[in-house]
């Protein structure tokens, strides 16, 4: 099978582990990526023997002429666009595919968005407002066009797939959790990990790793810590909410119990998880933010860390079946405090088969199920 993947974040390390697995399973793979996406800029150092990158210019979308030429050059059997069903990249890809091959080459899409596809008018600038207006006008047209041109949708959570169904999309859909490289995450000695980072040895430690933004519910988390004197808090990440959150921490007079770490090497992340007594993901739902997956949950589970998660989005779906987790009302500080207190009473059963449970979140499972889906749709057409 000659597979073409088109992915804005295809230069990231987690994406590369997925691409390598495709090749390992016998797929002839080419990946289209942007020349530049955020801090990631394509260079020949990204090239690998196992698969081929094609970097293209990206602004509002890929350069359509470059995209057309790249698809024609690859001449794929299957195209998988790692983008939402209403994504502009998917639209561009279908237009190119239809000109080149009509519908003979099947196009697959992704669905992660767990918020309504036509969100409310919340904006911070005139440019954001104009984009939102254009989006609201364009989405119904793209939904109509895509549902007649996309062969199948692979969803990262049930809610994302249900949203498409509610819009009248009746093409084949399949739930497959995004693949996490579980080789990087496993239990380690807690005291040794704390010593490595200079963390206190004789305290209970809560952790949050990810974007430091308001919608992640971090104010509630630090307020919970302020009422749990036996706990310290480890925050790992960057974001525009850091200064405001630091001011809240200082007003609560708990700065001596909060430990900040910024950039973390991927290969060291498991050591941070293994410092913890409990991992907390306190995200709350807003018109523009809702948890679509929570890869940190999988990473924490792989390290066998107890987890407290909010009711936001897909958190409960991802944690279902993990014996040492509790879910709290995303807007309730008291419920968060209560669940943190109770999580310490839970223990992993001796017969809990962690590798079997985690397999559904693995890179291998993600790729295997995707390939099965391509083949099922191709053979059924």
Description of the structure:
By secondary structure, the protein is of the alpha/beta class. The protein folds into two domains: 2-179 and 362-380, Rossmann fold, CATH 3.40.50; 182-358, Rossmann fold (3-Layer(aba) Sandwich). It has 14 helices and 15 strands. The strands form three sheets. Strands 5-2-1-6-7-8-9 form a seven-stranded parallel beta sheet, with helices on both faces. α3 (88-101) links the parallel β6 and β7. The model has no long low-confidence stretch (mean pLDDT 92).
Q: If you compute it from the alpha carbons, what radius of gyration comes out, rounded to the nearest whole angstrom?
A: 22 Å
Q: Helix fraction? A: 25-40%
- Which strand order spans the largest sheet, edge to edge or round the barrel? 5-2-1-6-7-8-9
Say which CATH homologous superfamily of the largest domain is assigned: Glycogen Phosphorylase B
Q: Write down how many β-strands occur, each being a DSSP E stretch of 2 or more residues.
A: 15
CATH class of the largest domain: Alpha Beta
- Mind summarizing the main beta sheet? 7 strands, parallel
Strand content: 15-25%
Give the N-to-C terminal Cα separation. 16 Å
Layout of SSEs?
Elements: E1 2-6, H1 13-24, E2 28-34, E3 36-37, E4 40-41, E5 52-56, H2 64-74, E6 78-81, H3 88-101, E7 106-111, H4 126-147, E8 152-155, H5 158-166, E9 173-175, H6 190-197, E10 204-209, H7 218-226, E11 231-236, H8 242-251, E12 258-261, H9 269-273, E13 278-281, H10 295-302, E14 307-310, H11 315-319, E15 325-328, H12 333-343, H13 354-358, H14 363-380
Parallel strand pairs: 1-2, 1-6, 2-5, 6-7, 7-8, 8-9, 10-11, 10-13, 11-12, 13-14, 14-15
Antiparallel strand pairs: 3-4
């Amino acid at each position: 099978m000659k597979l073409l993947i088109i992915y804005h974040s295809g230069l990231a390390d987690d994406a590369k582990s997925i691409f390598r697995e495709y090749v390992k399973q016998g797929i002839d793979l080419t990946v289209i990526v942007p020349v530049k996406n955020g801090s990631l800029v394509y260079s020949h150092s990204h090239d690998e023997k196992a698969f081929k990158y094609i970097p293209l210019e990206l602004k509002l979308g890929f350069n359509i002429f470059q995209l057309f030429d790249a698809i024609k050059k690859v001449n794929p059997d299957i195209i998988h666009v790692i983008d939402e069903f209403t994504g502009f990249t998917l639209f561009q890809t279908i237009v190119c595919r239809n000109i080149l091959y009509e519908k003979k080459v099947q196009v697959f899409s992704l669905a992660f968005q767990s918020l309504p596809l036509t969100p409310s008018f919340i904006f911070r600038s005139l440019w954001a407002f104009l984009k939102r207006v254009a989006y609201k006008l364009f989405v119904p047209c793209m939904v109509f066009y895509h549902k007649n041109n996309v062969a199948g949708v692979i969803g990262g959570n049930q809610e994302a797939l249900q949203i498409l169904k509610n819009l009248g999309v009746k093409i084949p859909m399949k739930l497959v959790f995004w693949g996490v490289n579980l080789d990087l995450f496993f239990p380690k000695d807690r005291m040794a990990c704390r010593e490595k980072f200079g963390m206190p040895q004789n305290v209970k430690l809560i952790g949050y790793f990810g974007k430091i933004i308001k919608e992640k519910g971090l104010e509630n988390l630090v307020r919970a810590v302020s009422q749990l004197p036996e706990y310290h808090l480890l925050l790992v990440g960057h974001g525009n909410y850091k200064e405001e959150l630091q001011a809240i921490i200082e007003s609560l007079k708990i700065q001596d119990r909060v430990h900040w770490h910024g950039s973390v090497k991927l290969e060291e992340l498991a050591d941070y998880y293994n410092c913890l007594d409990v991992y907390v993901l306190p995200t709350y739902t807003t018109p523009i933010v809702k948890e679509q997956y929570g890869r940190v949950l999988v990473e924490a589970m792989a390290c066998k860390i107890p987890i407290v998660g909010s009711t936001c989005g897909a958190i409960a779906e991802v944690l279902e079946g993990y014996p040492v987790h509790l879910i709290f009302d995303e807007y309730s500080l008291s419920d968060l405090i209560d669940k943190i207190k109770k999580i310490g009473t839970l223990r992993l059963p001796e017969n809990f088969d962690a590798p079997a449970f985690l397999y559904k979140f693995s890179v291998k499972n993600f790729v295997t199920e995707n390939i099965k889906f391509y083949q099922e749709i191709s053979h059924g057409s």
